[in-house]
């Protein structure tokens, strides 16, 4: 199962995980140890999904493992020594990220486990039925999976326990398992990954709001700087209007800078914007991505891997789900404009995530275990828990 990814900490976490239920992991009181186990169990799920769907496309638990490892670093304040000067803020980061980490895990991991239990058994008759359903009646797959996986058809907006996005996600994973064309499989996995991401990000929206909100600071700066930012914005608008009439392109950097200033000061989100620009990054594979920058291309010559360069799958159900997701993408078919201004805003996160998933879905470096190169002190820390 490990495919050569084992090391001391991975082996240790595997021993803890073998006999633990999802509930036992999610209910652990130590948020740091729980985070290590969540990261490891996301990776375990991604390896099992790779056996079902192939190892060319990373599925959501693979991305989830890297994001969980990043959250763990922030919870432990790794590389954030300045938090020693603000211990209360450090405690707040650990508590809120720990809650979010556990909430997402308990919302998503059991569904992946149930889906794998449904798809993995070597029951030839069941496999034939699934294959027939995928080929002859793909429109019936959502209702089948809603019942088989016991998913709540409401959206999270309608009810906190809603799982509508998960029904759509697992319908696409199901159909991807029987897609013969590599393009179709990659496209369906991409849409599935994004819907799981939407479920995840919607569930933790209020927690991220609380993470970077310092109301007193925001209120003071908003009162002081709003007139200046409005004046600057009027100047930018006039300059852009004149430039367009003269056939000039709008300066993207100035437009982004104004968006930053407007969100930080006029809209009163200074601490959220500054936190996004200064604190938020994501280690994925061999890269460290700055969330306040546009998502880098998947290669030096192409924004997206070839199987995701364009979406060709013609089925009406797929096109409808794809369009629903692309509504979150402010700039279709380019990573320009994917940079986040305020990570506490759902629209900013999803605008970044849809490009992150599309550019990195076929990055083989992300199939490695996020903790496989963990330093010795991490192993010692786990061993003592």
TrEMBL record:
<protein>
    <submittedName>
        <fullName>Uncharacterized protein</fullName>
    </submittedName>
</protein>
């Amino acid at each position: 199962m490990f495919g050569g990814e084992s090391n001391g900490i991975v082996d240790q976490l595997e021993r803890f995980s073998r006999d633990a239920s999802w509930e036992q992991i999610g209910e652990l009181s130590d948020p740091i140890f729980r985070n290590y186990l969540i990261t490891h169990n996301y990776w375990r799920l991604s390896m099992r999904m790779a056996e079902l769907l192939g190892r060319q496309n990373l599925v959501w638990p693979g991305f989830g493992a890297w994001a969980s490892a990043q959250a763990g670093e922030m919870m432990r304040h790794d590389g954030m020594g300045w938090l020693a000067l603000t211990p209360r803020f450090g405690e707040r980061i650990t508590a809120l990220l720990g809650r979010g980490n556990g909430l997402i895990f308990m919302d998503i991991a059991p569904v992946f486990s149930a889906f794998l239990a449904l798809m993995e058994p070597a029951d030839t008759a069941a496999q034939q039925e699934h294959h027939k359903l995928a080929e002859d009646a793909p429109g019936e797959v959502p209702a089948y999976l809603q019942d088989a996986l016991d998913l709540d058809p409401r959206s999270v907006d309608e009810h906190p326990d809603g799982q509508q996005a998960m029904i759509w996600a697992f319908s696409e994973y199901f159909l991807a398992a029987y897609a013969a064309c590599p393009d179709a499989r990659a496209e369906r996995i991409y849409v599935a990954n994004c819907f799981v991401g939407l479920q995840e990000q919607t569930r933790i929206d209020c927690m991220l709001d609380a993470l970077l909100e310092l109301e007193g600071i925001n209120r003071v700066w908003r009162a002081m700087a709003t007139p200046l930012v409005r004046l600057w914005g009027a100047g930018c608008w006039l300059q852009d209007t004149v430039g367009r009439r003269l056939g000039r392109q709008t300066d993207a950097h100035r437009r982004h800078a104004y968006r930053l200033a407007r969100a930080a000061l006029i809209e009163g989100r200074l601490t959220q914007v500054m936190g996004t620009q200064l604190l938020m990054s994501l280690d994925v594979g061999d890269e460290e991505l700055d969330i306040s920058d546009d998502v880098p291309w998947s290669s030096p010559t192409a924004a997206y891997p070839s199987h995701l360069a364009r979406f060709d799958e013609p089925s009406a159900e797929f096109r409808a789900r794809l369009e629903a997701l692309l509504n979150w993408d402010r700039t279709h078919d380019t990573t320009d404009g994917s940079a986040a201004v305020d990570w506490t805003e759902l629209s900013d996160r999803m605008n970044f995530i849809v490009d992150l998933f599309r550019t990195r879905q076929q990055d083989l470096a992300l199939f490695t275990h996020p903790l496989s190169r963990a330093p010795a002190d991490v192993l010692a820390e786990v061993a003592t828990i």
